[in-house]
C-alpha cells in the first residue's frame, strides 16, 4: 500500500475532477494521475459508482480532486504559482490553460476552465520587482500592471529604463 502524502491539497470540482487532473498531467512536468475512486454509495451530487475522488500531482504537489458538486466555486484566494524560465515556457503554460477553455486575467494570472487560478510567473519578473534598485523595480512593476500574460522582453526593458 502506498503511504499517502502528509499534506494534500483538496480541490473541489463539479463532477469533472478526473478531466481536470488528466489535463494538468498532460500540461505540466512532474504531474500525474494516480488512483481514481468511485463513490461507494449515492451522495448529494452523484450516484454510487460515479467518480468521487481523483489522486493526482501537479508539478510535484499532491492533490485530491473531489467531485463535490456545484455548491462551491474556486476563487483567487487559492492559486498555483508556476515559475517559468523563459518566454517559451510562459507561453506554453498560459496558452494551454487559456486555450483549453480558460480565461485570461491580469498580471500573469489566468483561470482554467474549472475555475482554478494560475499565476504563470517568469522568474525574471520576480527578480525585477524585487530588484534592490527600487526605481528599476517600480518600472518593472508598472509594466507588469499593464499586462495579462507576462512579456519578459517588456519587463526587462522596463527594468533597464
Outline the structure in words.
There is one protein chain. Helix 3 (about 125-130) packs parallel to helix 5 and helix 4 packs antiparallel against helix 5. This protein is α/β, with parallel strands linked by helices and about 160 residues long. It has a four-stranded mixed β-sheet with strand order 1-4-3-2. It has helices at about 15-25, 85-100, 125-130, 135-145, 150-160; strands spanning about 10-15, 30-40, 50-60, 60-65, 80-85, 105, 110, 115-120.
In short:
By secondary structure, the protein is α/β, with parallel strands linked by helices. It has helices at 17-27, 87-99, 123-129, 134-144, 152-160; strands at residues 9-13, 32-38, 51-58, 61-67, 79-84, 103-104, 109-111, 117-122.
Morphology call: elongated
Determine the mean pLDDT. Answer: 96
Number of strands: 8
| N-to-C CA distance | 57 Å
Integer tally of domains = 2
- Provide a count of the helices: 5
Largest sheet: 4 strands, mixed
CATH topology of the largest domain: 2,3-Dihydroxybiphenyl 1,2-Dioxygenase, domain 1
**Helix-and-strand structural type:** alpha/beta
Largest beta sheet: strand ordering: 1-4-3-2
| CATH architecture annotation name of the largest domain | Roll
**Rg over C-alpha atoms, rounded to the nearest angstrom:** 18 Å
